[in-house]
């Protein structure tokens, strides 16, 4: 039996507005810009986790089902993330306990603000990648 720690599973939602921009959050803990999301809790389905995390971090309720646009593995952090393109159905973007700032960004702006490993998630979602993208990274750069 392996003594390695298990992977964690997370979800992230890329909310796209009617102008084709994506909503990014700036995290309070590390200052990084990325789509809202987080780790699934025990007993929680993937759609429930997605809706909960997006609401907690942005104040926005999303429509379900959302479209899976990519699966990403952080090879150093042992995190597998599923990213979904989302549609807002209620709420106004607001910062929360985990969110320092929010910003609607264009394709060009996302690559300036976010590390490559997170920018590609947003770009894949904006492209509505089908089939979903499957990528690996080290937490910052794609591998």
From TrEMBL:
Name of protein: NUDIX hydrolase
Homology family: Belongs to the Nudix hydrolase family.
Pfam families registered for this protein in UniProt: NUDIX
Record key words, sorted: Hydrolase
Nudix hydrolase domain segment(s): 6-127
InterPro entries given in the database record: Nudix_hydrolase, NUDIX_hydrolase-like_dom_sf, NUDIX_hydrolase_CS, NUDIX_hydrolase_dom
GO molecular function: hydrolase activity
